Amino acid sequence: MVGRIQINQEWCKGCGICVAFCPGQALGLAEGKVRMLFPDQCVGCGLCELRCPDYAIWMEAGDAGEARQNG
Amino acid sequence: MAEGRRLLLHGNEAVVEGALAAGMRFFAGYPITPSTEIAERCALRLPQVGGRFIQMEDELASMAAVIGASVVGVKAMTATSGPGFSLMQENIGYAALAEIPCVIVDVQRAGPSTGMPTSPSQGDYMQARWGTHGDHPIIVISPSSAQEAYFETIRAFTLSERLRVPVILLMDETVGHLREGVELLDASEAAASDRLARDDAEQAEKPYAVLPGEYVPRLSPFGQGALYNITGLIHDDRGFPTSSKEAADRLCRRIMEKIAMNAGEIERYESRHMEDAQVCVVSFGGTARAVQAAVDAARGDGIRVGLFRPITVWPFPEAALGRICGRVRDIVVAELNGGQMKMEVERVAAGRCRVHHLGRVNGAILTPGEILAAIREVAG
Amino acid sequence: MASRLIERYMRGAYLPHIWCAGCGNGIILRDVVQAVDNLRLEKRDTVFVSGIGCSSRAVGYLDFDTLHTTHGRAIAFATGIKMARPELKVIVLTGDGDAAAIGGNHLIHAARRNIDLTVVVLNNNIYGMTGGQFSPTTPIGDFSTTTPYGGIDPDFDIPALAQAAGATYTARGTAYHAAQTTKLIEAAILHEGFSVVECVTTCPTYYGRKNHRGNAVEMLKWQRDNAIPVAQARNLPREALEGKIVYGELWRCQRPEYTRQYAAIIERAGGKKQ
Asked: In this model, does residue C273 exceed pLDDT 70?
């Protein structure tokens, strides 16, 4: 079971770290905030959560790439 | 070891015994003349009562460690002299703003700078009040005997704990090294007040909020699960930095008002032969001992002179001295500095009587003979 | 709304934090709480202490008893806490200026005593809070607002300094190597004695901009490409390590811990029954 990506856009400062280091290139920035662009490319590694300086993106138990966006 | 007995102690040792009687269980300090015996006796005595002593790398660290110990609920003290007192000032301000109880002993020596390390002085009078930056509350107590050093140290802890304010015990080399018989209290008699704490949900939410009609927050010690923040930044009731002008105004006024609202309890002075006096000598600490001898001698000569001795020197006992200023013709301020308390006396006198100064800045003390001569000159 | 880890250990009402976009401090603070979570430390038995600077704002976001002190003095405040209540876990979060310049004396003396504190130094190679002046870890030759012609001050190696002064555990992590850094912080907290973990963080706003290091992403990529694991570094000549970050556990030894020794003094003095 791999995780499900969660995003809190209110906390995202748009630094682009998660986007740059996403191995599946699943993430992108839109209007300065992170977006899950290609859910099927998310491998559920959780590196975005580890390196997000703002705790705006994280993985919860569930299927890979099922992004739920908030804020 | 020493409770309930009369011992021959010098002032510095009496301070330690008073602190132990008050429940002090942590001391951090750095050696400096003429305060070193306080650290030495703490190193010996504290582990005997389950307390802890640490010699830090400097006075900045000593003051910081004292605040750290107090934050977890342990009554804490440090001791130093002029140069070290200067180094402690920033963290004294931290304790004043963050409202962490602590007692700082400054055994004054002649300054400025390294000055004359083994010579007495009262040159830190203004620094004790205004040494740290910004408007801040402080209480300063200046004993004039070993016995008084013992009792006033206990009172310093009570005031510090109750009002959550740094209390400075402003000693001088004369009192610090003067050996006298000191009556020690039983532990039960001596017990100084403890700080008030609360452990309800409100405390965790708003640790710096005060209860209706109160001026002092009841912060619970760290390590008991309240989980709150303490900072030297201007903070709100939750203990977090704020740039709100209203919150800043409320905090900065409250920490001053808690002193003003408790002035009666804080104020302490000795008034001697003042009933019919035309001349009043104002003096404090070790110098007041010589003044007392001079006043007694002058009375023997028929001069109507009295002594007014502030024991709590900050806040200055202006109401009590104000009443004297309306009655006497002359005031002589005798102190081992260039006129620091004289400035306070002039402010209170506000032209109602003449204010003279008998000061000394060369490391020597004022003798009873010199003071008597000054009294005679003023009395005409 | 946040991850379980963040909701459990941080004061969500104060997030998002004050740090700039892409500042590595947020990554390292997450490493710290992950380490605390992995070790199952009790909140009421754990105190965080910090000094002044960007790094030191970290404690305000932690849902623990937190003491934000004066510039440079965090380790000295923490020493008082640990001496007064040795049963508490005391963790210091500090910066390169806070720990190695104004507070350098406290760092070396706490190391000498081997008092059981864990010091996490968030090293961003610059004074960020005051707007980009050089710090004791700004590499020689680099630029800052107070080295407009390039710096002539050599830089400190903080773990080496702490080791020389007597620290019994030292390590270095980076913002990029989040998982590894978490493990190093965990080991430091578990270690009984004075432990220092230097966490090389990224300041895109001042250090990065002044030294043409690119944005936050570029700075993390630089860490990825220029960090050498300590085991590998030990087999490399000195020149090969020039300008690199050697990360991992750097030093570990056992020496009597200070508060434990003081407990023996209390016993010797007869104060234990009190």
From this structure: no
Domain's final residue, options B223, B241, B264: B264
Q: Using the structure block, give the residue that is written with the tokens 């963050």.
A: B98
Which alpha helices (H) appear in B142-262, and where do they start and end? 146-163, 173-176, 187-190, 201-205, 245-260
Domain count, chain B: 3
CA distance B124 to B82: 7
Q: C25 CA to chain A: closest CA distance, Å?
A: 7
Q: What is the largest distance, in Å, between two alpha-carbon atoms of chain A?
A: 32
Instruction: Return the pLDDT at B2.
Output: 45
Choices 3.50.50.60, 3.30.70.20, 1.10.10.10, 3.40.50.1370: CATH for A3-70: 3.30.70.20
Which bin fits B53, alpha (ψ -120 to 50), beta or left (φ > 0)? beta
B96 inside domain: yes
Binary contact (A53, C10; C-beta < 8 A): no
The domain boundary, picked from B168, B190, B212, lies at B190
One-character DSSP codes across C210-247:
HTT--SHHHHHHHHHHHEEEHHHHTTS-GGGGTT-EEE
What is the model's pTM? 0.97
Amino acid at position B373, single letter: A
Domain ranges for chain C, please list them: 4-269
As assigned by CATH, the class of the C4-269 domain is alpha beta
- Residue extents of the structural domains in chain A: 3-70
Partners of chain C (3+ Cβ pairs below 8 A): A, B
Helix (H, G, I), strand (E, B) or coil at A51: helix
- Which residues form the domain of B12? 6-190
ipTM passes above 0.85: yes
Q: Do residues C201 and C28 touch, judged by C-beta distance below 8 A?
A: yes
Measured between CA atoms, how close is A11 to chain C, in angstroms? 5
Is the C-alpha dihedral spanning B235, B239, B240, B244 positive or negative? negative
pLDDT value for C229: 98
Residues B151, B112, single domain; the answer is: yes
- Cβ atoms of residues C2 and A58 within 8 Å: yes
